[in-house]
Amino acid sequence: MLLTAAALAVLIALLPLGYLLIRVGEAGADRVAAELLTARVGELAARSLGLAAVVTAACTVLGVGTAFLVTRTDLPASRMFSVLAALPLAVPTYIAGFTWISTVDGFAGFWASALVLVLCCYPYMFLPVAATLHRADPAQEDVAQSLGHHPWRTFRSVTLPQLRPAVAGGALLVALYVLSDFGAVALLRTDTFTRAVFTALELGFDRTGALVLSTVLVALTTLLLAGESLTRRRSARYAPVGSGARRPPVRIGLGPWRWPVTLLLGSVSALALGVPALNLTRRLVAGVSRPGSLVEMAWAAGNSLTVSAAGAVLTMLLALPIGLLVARAPGPLAATVDRLGYLTHALPGVVIGLSLVFFGIHVVYPLYQTRWLLMLAYAALFLPLAVASVGAAAAQAPPVLDDVARSLGRSPLRAFTSVTAPLVAPGIAAGTALVFLTCMKELPATLLLRPTGMDTLATELWTHTTVAAYAAAAPYAALLVLLSAIPAWFLAARSGAIGGDR
């Protein structure tokens, strides 16, 4: 039953990919080969992979380093830095891009895109690593140090292997985000696959060619998933030593590096949050003073909140059976179902949107121009984020408790609702918050699938930005960041870094 529900959920999420393959198949092998075997495709692939590699490497160094400093050292104001490290999740890349353009003359190109994406994406690495460090049993580190290992050698030989699954998962999310990002690379004029696909579709002269280009993103995603799977097989997992209550780890003294490191983390936060905040504040007053702007903002905010909440709920409903299957019945079949959900995660939102427009017009017309199709697009795009949260929480819920409940005569459904569900609830809440946050920021699919007359904060922001009305766009950007900061703070608190032992 669980496998059937999981398979049905992933099939729903794969609807856009099915449309993509059907349309590419209709083009014929000769047309596909002509589109793919070109020097431009090679350049786009090299640039997209290069950008993903640079951003992922930088996010790994920055995210792991920040997580270690706030959880395992005597860094001053570590709680404040934990919050600051999570808040960039609330800043959409297109907002960060246009604030940097407005602040620095000539800010554009590959390295400008890499900088903006690193500053926006490193929380995807920081949050899981901080959570792992907070929950890790320090007993093994104590054993290593009792054998004479220096603290940094203990970190390399004992702590780092425990972080490997979290680092691999965070790196995968960052790389997939970079491959699918459109806002930052478009504003900063960096030619990647997503920009090329969007440009071809927007101009309307080569829709088939754009869809063929999208299949390259699917191939690149498959390669990334295969690499992450290899890392999982090679990873070492360390069970807690002994039983009883876990004690907090001993914090490492930074010594003379304490204040230089504090200054470094402060500088990162200033670049990630300070530049957007100062730029938006400078333009905010002029934008709010426009006649009718407050009413428009209230309607847009209401639409953003309701459609994002509905999309997060639908995504979590689809993710539950997949996450439980991965945690409770691991194996090739569960891994395949889990990995299939990632294939649509790397597709540009515009491709997801177009596929569901086709699906709505030709298959489920009553749903066309309704919020249901937009919610389905969110589920297809962000399903892996919810599955990862549910799977991690379910893996920590001992299956034996469920077996005991069923041996006492409870039905499978009642055993799940009374035993498993309460244990998985924190993971469900974290996954729902992460998907809600991401839905609030999503732009291309929302532009295509929103019902006529329904504007969100993201679409209003984009509409004003495209005509260079930056003052009018600033209030929508500021409100979007403010509302997105609430789930971002919740995720930081869930990681344990904020309320951790001090």
From TrEMBL:
The keyword Mitochondrion does not apply. GO terms for cellular component: plasma membrane. It comes from the Bacteria. The chain crosses the membrane at residues 45-69, 81-101, 107-127, 166-188, 208-227, 257-278, 298-326, 346-368, 374-395, 415-437, 467-492. Residues 45-226, 301-491 form the ABC transmembrane type-1 domain. It is a multi-pass membrane protein. Signal peptide: none annotated. SUPFAM superfamilies: MetI-like (SSF161098). It is found in: Cell inner membrane; Cell membrane. Keywords: Cell inner membrane, Cell membrane, Membrane, Transmembrane, Transmembrane helix, Transport. Belongs to the binding-protein-dependent transport system permease family. This is Iron ABC transporter permease. The lineage of its organism: Bacteria, Bacillati, Actinomycetota, Actinomycetes, Micromonosporales.
